[in-house]
Amino acid sequence: xxxxxxxxxxxxxxxxxxxxxxxxxxxxxxxxxxxxxxxxxxxxxxxxxxxxxxxxxxxxxxxxxxxxxxxxxxxxxxxxxxxxxxxxxxxxxxxxxxxxxxxxxxxxxxxxxxxxxxxxxxxxxxxxxxxxxxxxxxxxxxxxxxxxxxxxxxxxxxxxxxxxxxxxxxxxxxxxxxxxxxxxxxxxxxxxxx
Length: 194
What we know:
CATH superfamily of the largest domain: Ribosomal protein S6/Translation elongation factor EF1B
Strand content: 15-25%
Distance between the termini: 126 Å
Low-confidence stretches: none
Number of strands: 4
Largest sheet: 4 strands, antiparallel
CATH topology of the largest domain: Alpha-Beta Plaits
CATH architecture of the largest domain: 2-Layer Sandwich
CATH class of the largest domain: Alpha Beta
Strand order of the largest sheet: 1-2-4-3
Order of helices and strands: HHHEEHEE
Mean pLDDT: 82
Number of domains: 2
Shape: rod-shaped
Radius of gyration: 46 Å
């Protein structure tokens, strides 16, 4: 008997109602996907694209804001520096004070001032500039470089060199002596305080 059951073909008895229900279910699922889910997926893709563009614009705006803040900080630093410079720069031409400062720097560098003249008001000269001609003498070249360095480093915003000439002279006699003579034509910037 067991052999008969094993040799008997297996037949599935599936009702047509169940098959029709499965087909209707598959059709509903396909229709649901194509008419509801697929458009929503496309809509989500479009929204994601818009979000990416909005994020790019936001990043650009944040970068611009950062740069603007940086520029505002630089402007504030420059304004503070201008206030400092207005306090440092002399208000008027004071040849005596300038001469004392030049003589002090010359002595500090190991040389001396040979001559110093300040030019009077010349046509076209700016009101906020005092022009001078200075001759400095030093026995060593190091004296000259030290003097020029002291002028430049002690008064970087105040003194501008228009022309600098260095001349080396050797005087012969019982002993030969070397001198370095520096001719400087420069300007002293004055404050523009009102």
